[in-house]
Amino acid sequence: MYLSIIFLPLLGSIVSGLLGRKVGVTGSQIITCTSLIVSSFLITVAFYEVGICASPVAIDIISWLDIEILSISWSFYFDQLTVSLCLAVLYCSTLIHIYSVDYLSTDPHNQRFFSYLSAFTAGMLILICGGNLFVMFVGWISPA
């Protein structure tokens, strides 16, 4: 559940960016908005589990670099501060996505905008939830 909070906006961005012509403007809007609404629901559940019940979660995905004195892994950490920041980021980004559907209805590059906006949201979530400085750096440079 915790990894899907981060990767659903990334998946929506990839689908909207690479398959934007196939799914069309409306499909791109539906895919990105739905992925963020589901992520917002999941972060609300995570806020209850981690923020209120005080049970932090650490997820190690894979060891990226492991030499004698240096160990860098793809890891994410969800504690009370992280979940609170993710809650604010996802709620604001979801509202911006929903507002942008009508506001940018005449824009000719709608799919690209929604792809970039979802990628920015995913980058912010990676930056917030990164378990070490390497993952946080990936989240810092990914929206740029």
Mind explaining what this structure looks like?
With 144 residues, this protein is an alpha+beta fold. It has one domain (2-141). Helices cover 72% and strands 12% of the residues. The protein is built from five helices and two strands. The chain has helices at 2-18, 20-52, 80-103, 110-129, 133-141, and strands at residues 57-66, 71-78. Strands 1-2 form a two-stranded antiparallel sheet. A hairpin with a 4-residue loop joins β1 and β2 (71-78). α2 (20-52) packs antiparallel against α3 and α2 runs parallel beside α4. The model has no long low-confidence stretch (mean pLDDT 91).
How do the helices and strands line up, and which of them pair or pack?
Elements: H1 2-18, H2 20-52, E1 57-66, E2 71-78, H3 80-103, H4 110-129, H5 133-141
Antiparallel strand pairs: 1-2
Helix pairs in contact: 1-2, 1-4, 2-3, 2-4, 3-4, 4-5
Précis, in short:
The chain is α+β, with helices and mostly antiparallel strands and 144 residues long.
* First-last Cα distance: 27 Å
- SSE order in H/E notation? HHEEHHH
Low-confidence stretches: none
- The Cα radius of gyration reads 16 Å
- Give the neighbour order of strands across the main sheet: 1-2
Domain unit count: 1
Compute the number of strand runs: 2
Please count the helical segments: 5
Helix-residue proportion: over 70%
Structural class: alpha+beta
Quick check: average pLDDT? 91
> Globular, elongated, flat, extended or rod-shaped: what is the shape?
globular
Q: Approximately what portion of the residues adopt beta-strand conformation? A: 5-15%
Describe the sheet with the most strands. 2 strands, antiparallel
